[in-house]
Amino acid sequence: MHAATYTAIFGLLIGLYIVTRRKSTSSLPLPPGPKPLPIIGNVHQAPKSHAWRTYRAWSKEYGPIIHVNMLGQPVIILSTSEVAHDLMGKRGAIFSDRPRLFLATELALKGLNILMMNYTEQFRQHQRLQVSVLNATPAAAYLPFQALESHQLMCDLLENAGGAGADVQGPFQRTVASIIHTLLYGFRVKDCNDPVIRAVIQLNEEFSEFVQVGAHIVDQFPILNNLPSFLAPWKAKAENHYSTKYVLRDQNFQRGLESDAWNISKHLKKTVEKDGLDMPLDELAFELGTMIDAALDGTTDSLVWFVVACITQDRGFVTKARDELDAVVGRDRLPAPDDKPNLPYITAVAEEIFRWRPVGPEGVPHLNKEEATYNGYTIPKGSVIVPNVWTISREEALFGPDPDDFIPDRWLEEDGKKLKTLPSAVFGYGRRTCPGRYFARNVIWIVVAQLLWSFDIKAGLSEETGEPIPVDPIACTYGLVMRALPFKATFSPRDSQVRKVIARDGDTYSKDHAAMLNQIGAEFAKL
Ligand code: HEM
User: Fold this and answer.
1) Whole-prediction pTM value?
2) At which positions is heme bound (predicted)?
3) For residue range 200-243, what is the model confidence (pLDDT) as tens digits?
4) Quick check: ipTM above 0.95?
């Protein structure tokens, strides 16, 4: 771009800053935070990457509620569970919108992404549909199919057992992708390189780039959207993202509608028609696609972090988990969802995964549509509210000492049998709390239980030296989801029973998944 264009844009930004500066009606001060500069505020101090690390350091210096100024845009970072619940939970009527920060994303999705919608009537209509298929009771109907896919994962890992080990992501991604595509659209996924799955993954990566705070200047200054396309490169990117997503979602939705068995596409289409909802079918197809996107990464990556924990954090938790499994389940069958009430330690392991490596360490931001006062501070109207999930999950007052270590016992009462009621930050807050949390918890629980029952999980071996390749427990990507960097692991059967039990039922692809779907449909009919 020409220097004169830069100067013109910079001038425009300064002008806009002055015009759009927010006026407060409260005499209370803003929350504390790093010292801003005139006009740019704290932009020069804003972390370029892995912001949650900086937010944790800031919370130690400035306390549980911090204000930063990004070119006039107030950002409020919340670092304790209490503050996050008080604002985003108890004051949900004010704190449930989404920031304009995502204008680039809105462009990319033409306002159809549920995750990015404000808390409007249109959003609530989508939320009611999601809840009708994802809440605790409907989610329980999916358990047999989730257990079947977990069994398939055990078959896949067993088949590749031995040798130097393999990259971990693929088999877990296939499992989660297959669970959600079967339930939503009626087709199983046998290979993580299936083009439908690769397309979802590629779109999720692009989406993660769109929602990077500060990545698109248009987010701060929507007026820049009026620039011609050659000065606004995000427009073409957004258009391409939208049309690729539209085609994929439409194809999957049609596949669901045309399939013989019950599935969520058919079920929700019927609900929309029966209830006379004002929702065109392409909007419903987008709704289903949002569920796929939201489900795939978070669930897969939490499972991969569990593998990292097994390799780098085992100070006895694996033996404790196995002792519980062997006492309750025995060695003649895989653990099943019905075992859950008798396996509190496994539930504690699952909760510790979410706490130790919350896959969204900076949360998903909210926005307050009214000015608020809290604990002697003013929170200006239109602030971006960031739940500092990484730090909240490390509150020693709640979770005890050594918060950076993986210690499932912190979730259990002294008797080791009952779970404590500790708050979990990973699924968000208030009216925007993740509707897929029951679904995700169920998948993670069964996979973790079956993995611990079946395998010794160790670091992969170097092809040259045969020595284990160390796994760095904190090496991760930066984006909407915190993903472990690629690493190899070995999954060795714990004993001869493993092969016998896993092989006994044979390959799960011979099972009639359409019959399982119809059974879910029959259970839905009773709800
Ligand atoms: C471990 C797995 C998962 C994690 C960590 C996770 C986390 C989150 C978070 C933090 C939010 C935003 C909450 C907020 O704004 O306060 C969210 C929203 C959402 N999640 Fe999940 N999620 C997971 C799995 C799932 C699954 C399995 C589904 C569906 C099957 C799902 C569907 C959604 C949807 C539709 C939204 C948008 C809700 C809204 O904007 O109000 N998620 N999720």
Assistant:
1) 0.94
2) 434
3) 999 999 888 877 766 777 877 778 888 888 888 888 888 889 89
4) yes
Choose one of 207, 211, 434, 483 to mutate for the ligand 1 pocket test, by most ligand atoms within 8 angstroms of C-beta: 434
Give the C-alpha separation, 490 to 517, whole Å. Answer: 33
How far away, in angstroms, is 157 Cα from ligand 1 center?
Answer: 28
Q: Which residue ranges make up the annotated binding site?
A: 434
Do the domain assignments include residue 142?
yes
**The pLDDT of residue 466 is above 90:** yes
Whether the per-residue pLDDT at 12 is higher than 60: the answer is no
Bridge-based pairing of strands 366-367 and 372-374 is: unpaired
Q: Answer yes or no: is 21 within a domain.
A: no
Q: What pLDDT, on a 0 to 100 scale, did the predictor assign at position 48?
A: 85
Residue at 202 is within a domain: yes
CA-nearest residue, atom 29 of ligand 1:
436
Task: Output the domain CATH number for residue 521.
Answer: 1.10.630.10
The Cα 55–Cα 32 span in angstroms is: 13
Name the residue at shortest CA distance from atom 7 of ligand 1: 427
For residue 387, which atom of ligand 1 is closest to its CA?
16
202, 176 in Cβ contact below 8 A? no
In a domain, 157, yes or no: yes
Candidate from 95-104, 472-481, 515-524 with smallest mean pLDDT? 95-104
How many Å separate Cα 74 from the centre of its chain?
A: 25
Nearest atom (ligand 1) to Cα of 443: 27
Q: What is the extent of the structural domain holding 116?
A: 81-351+429-525
